[in-house]
Amino acid sequence: MLISVPGTGMMAERYGDPESQVWALHGWGRSRRDWEPVLFDRDAVSFDLPGFGATSAPDTPWTTLDYAQALLAGLPDGQTRVLAGHSFGGRIAIQMAALAPQKVRALVLTGVPLLRRSGGGKPKVGYRMARWLHAHQLLGDARMEAYRQRYGSADYRAAVGVMRTIMVSAVNEDYADQLRMIAEAGIPVVMVWGADDTEVPVAIAQAARGILGEAAELTVVDGATHQLDDHLAEPLRAALRSVSA
User: Fold this and answer.
1) Last residue of a domain, which of 102, 135, 164?
2) Tally of domains within the chain
3) 3-class secondary structure, 165
């Protein structure tokens, strides 16, 4: 059932009981429907985050912290939720748990860029030069956009307006401090990762687990990649059962 979640300004799919115990957050460029194979028989809400699916984009560029605050506004004091986050949605879930640990019962994460990858490299020389020329008004907007389309990722090329700014902000974030806060708060964290995830390799999850310590579990799923596919559905369902018991 598609609903409007009070206090958040967001649309979401509701599964089961209205007093949903799980809030699920999708990845960049995705929608609430990604979580259906995981949540179909649970009491849960799967959000369309602002700028995706049935929820309109923000008027101004948001950070992941802004997304987190908007979601927390819909969760009254005294209530807690298990947060399930994939990729971009996991970034937001991490921010929510660090900001309001008293409202987060547990985290279930998959394919989340929890830490910035070292050795990622700089943009190609041609693109860096184009940006310099554009910044100094020596290259027009149309030509600059052509360079963005040529050198940017698929997600970057698809994003327009405020959503492109949001994406650029998000991919430059690192959550080591938030992970430490979550560990200190004792929030259980279960990570379910695709063994063949090349966008956010298992090494990222392993490094995050080193920060989280005993509060974290990591399951690596053979045959799974980055997206929420059939390989990940049952392991994620098992993870939710383990933190909802």
Assistant:
1) 164
2) 2
3) helix
